[in-house]
Amino acid sequence: MNRSATLKPVGFTFSFFIISAVSLFSAEKPSYYVIKDSWQETMYASRQALIDFEARQTIQNTAKIRELGIETGPWYLVGPFDGVKQDPYETQFGPELDTDLNKTYGQLKWTPKPDWKDGDIHILPGQGRAVANYVYRTISANKDAKLPIYLGSSDGIQVWFNGQKVLANKIDRKAEADQDIIELDFKQGENELLLKINNQASRHDFYFAILPGRGKKAELRKQLWDVIELDFAGDTERQQMRWEREDRIWEEDPNSGYISKLAQRYAHAAANFEPFSGKAKLFSGKVENFDQLKDVRKIYYVSKRFEYNLRSVNQKRKLMKNEADYFSQMYKADHTQWEKYKAELAIIEAKNNKISAKVRAGDFSALESLPEIETELEKIYSRQSAIPGGAKALQCHPFELKDVRLLDGPFRTAMELDRKYLYDLDSDRLLHMFRVTAELPSTAQPLGGWEARGLRGHTIGHYLTACALMYASTADENLKVKADYIVAELAKCQTASGNGYLSAFPEKCVKDVIYGTGGWWAPWYTLHKIFAGLIDMYNYCGNQQAIDIALKMASWAKGHLDNLNEEQMQRMLETEYGGMNETLCDLYMITKNPDHLALAKKFDHKKIFEPLTKFEDRLKGLHVNTQIPKIIGTAREFELTGEKYYYNISAYFWTEVVDARTYCTGGTSNHEHWRTEPYKLAAELSPATQETCCTYNMLKLTRHLFTWQPNAEYADYYETALYNSILSTQDPKTGMMMYHVPLNSGHWKSFNTPYDSFWCCTGTGLENHAKYGDSIYFHDDKGLYVNLFIASELNWTDKGVQILQQTNFPEEQQTTLMIKTKKPAEFDLRIRVPSWLIGPMTVKINGSKQKAKTQPGSYLTLKQTWKNGDRITIDLPMGLHLHRMPDDAGLAAIMYGPLVMAGELGTEGLPDNVFLKKQLEQNITPAYPPVPEFFADSDRIEKWIKPVEGQPLTFKTVNAGKPRDVKLVPYYRLFDQRYSIYWRLNPADQ
Ligand SMILES: [Zn+2]
Question: For residue 693, how far is its CA from the centre of ligand 1 (angstroms)?
Answer without folding.
Answer: 4
